[in-house]
C-alpha cells in the first residue's frame, strides 16, 4: 500500500501518540492537533481511528519481515541461523514504538491480531524459520522435529520481556541510557538467543 507524504506525517504522529498514551487514550482530535491538520482530513484519509491503526501496522509490517535472502547465502546453516537471529532482533529493536503499541493492542485487546497484515507477517516469518530448520536437518546439523512456532516464540518472548521490563533490567544491568540498553540487546542478548536456539535444535533427548 502506498501512502502520500501527508498520510505518512499523520501515521508518524499517531504512532507516537498511541505508543505514549495508548489507542484508547488518544483521540482523532489529538492526532489532528499534533499533526496540524483538521479532523476531516484524517477521516478522509483513513475513515476511522481503528482503520488508522490498521494502516499504521501495514506501513510498518515490511520492516518486521525476516529477510528471505539469507536462505540463499552459501554459508554454513549455523551461520545462517546466527544471521537470522541478529537481524531480527536489530529490526525489532529499531521500531520500539510500534512494538509498544502491539504489546497493548494485540496482546490485550486483540485488535491487530485479527488483521490480515499481522497474520501474513507471522506466516512469512514462520516460513523463513521453517526453511532454515529444514536446511539444518538436510545438512545433518539439526535434529528433526523442531517446531518453528516455538523457535519464533523463544525470540519474540525474550525480546518482549526485555521491552516490558526495560526500567528494571536497565538498573539490574547497571546501564544508564537507552542507547546502552539497545546495544546490550543487539550484542549480549543476541548471542544468548543464538546459543539457546542452537542448543534447542541440536539437543538429543
From TrEMBL:
The protein, known as: TetR family transcriptional regulator
Listed PROSITE patterns: HTH_TETR_1 (PS01081), HTH_TETR_2 (PS50977)
The organism's taxonomic lineage, starting at the top: Bacteria, Pseudomonadati, Bacteroidota, Sphingobacteriia, Sphingobacteriales
DNA-binding residue intervals: 27-46
Organism, as annotated: Sphingobacterium anhuiense
InterPro entries for this protein: DNA-bd_HTH_TetR-type_CS (IPR023772), Homeodomain-like_sf (IPR009057), HTH-type_TetR-like_transc_reg (IPR050109), HTH_TetR (IPR001647), NicS_C (IPR041474), Tet_transcr_reg_TetR-rel_C_sf (IPR036271)
UniProt entry keywords in alphabetical sequence: DNA-binding
Domain HTH tetR-type: 4-64
